[in-house]
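I'd like us to work through together how a protein chain folds, taking it slowly. We need material for that, and I hope you will provide a protein of your own picking. Go ahead whenever you are ready, and we will take it from there:
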Amino acid sequence: MFWKTILIVFSIFLSILLYRAYVVFTPDKTIFESCLSSTANHSLKFDQNRLRTFQKLLQFQTISYEVNKQNFDEIKKCRNFIKEHYHDLVTNYSEFVDLYDIAEYSLLYSIQGKNLNLKPFLFSAHMDVVPARDLNRWKYPPFDAHTDKDFIYARGTLDDKGNLFAMMEALKEYLHAYGQPSRTFYVALTHNEEAGHSGAMGIAHHLSQQPFGHNGQFEFVLDEGTTILEEVFPTLNNPIAIIGVAEKGYMSIKYRIAMASGHSSMPSAPTAIGILARAVDKLESTLQPSQFGRGPELSLLHGVTPYLKFPLRLVMSNIWLFGPVIEWVLSRKPGTDALQRTSTAVTLISGGEKENILPTSASATVNLFNDFSNELEKSLSTAARKEPLDTTNYLACQCIVTEFIKIIRYTWLSKKDSSLEQSVFFSLNGYSTLNKMIELTVTRDKPVLASER
């Protein structure tokens, strides 16, 4: 009787798993049907003329080094080229197309639709690029835009002049084929997404002054986006086009220690660099807690589940049961582990003045991409519990947390800014939480023992 009961329970349990795998998660075969868009009225073929236009965009050295430190001459040339090359958009369709210069270098194209009751949408891209370091690792010079049969080699092909070029060419071809659209939309091209915010802030302010701006929202915003991935999931034969629906928060924290000077022949132990090294080791060896199942990664997994094969389909369709196993698998690779937790990376470190002099200071910058479901204060509290400056001898955890929270509550946008203005700014600037460098200074002349607190 006992084993019969066990068998019945097991059969019911297995039936539930299989029901979810093959009934609840059923493939949508229509997604593999060809698009119905006709090519009779338009052509977006990547011909030699378009190749030359793209190469020209890539050849402008629109480098952003840091805030207010950019190659402004090249950015200005790039902006002028865009305005001149796509000048017909404004002259031929002046009844409903306008172009605005924003923050001196950024551009905003406004295409007014026929039906003003429809929510507008926004396309955005940026013309600046990050520096091309270590030129010896480049197959061709990064701003030559060299092309062979398969690739174009240049800084900015993916981030983000490729998107800029594609959006402008699609806009030009659409207006040529169909004329005025039904829905209003905008194309925002910013100049300092990589280092700064004036372009995004100016465009956000401009859009907030439009009739829909104070209490309306965009239908959608399309910016840099992600990539098309292949062979990401075992047994999945189709490529996956990832649609970004959220972006992690972003924050950089700078830890700095100042100490009295001394000579290396009579060293104090540990030195400022030694303290910082232990802190860095703890930060890297202790991960932020997993938030698996609380963010948009769950929708991604549910979306691909119907196209997987047994037994993976059985597992993925029953995350309620196999969640811990999936969480462990995701944690094996940095790319997938970042989907489920706040990532912590030590990106800059410095200290010392001379080889035989004890360092008077040492500093490290830690970059966090905050998980969607995790508040920044929680990430900071977790970072403090990792004892980044060794609480046993040097600093109380609570001091770190209090200092961080006080600073993190400041924002670049004032309370009077509309919600749309803030959301547009965040979208154009690349992050849902603004980059804010936080510096914490710790000064000590002697070790602080636990009993002294």
Observations:
- The chain is about 35% helix and 15% strand.
- The chain has three domains: 2-26, 48-225, 248-289+341-452.
- The two ends are 65 Å apart (CA to CA).
- Residues 2-24 form the longest helix (23 residues).
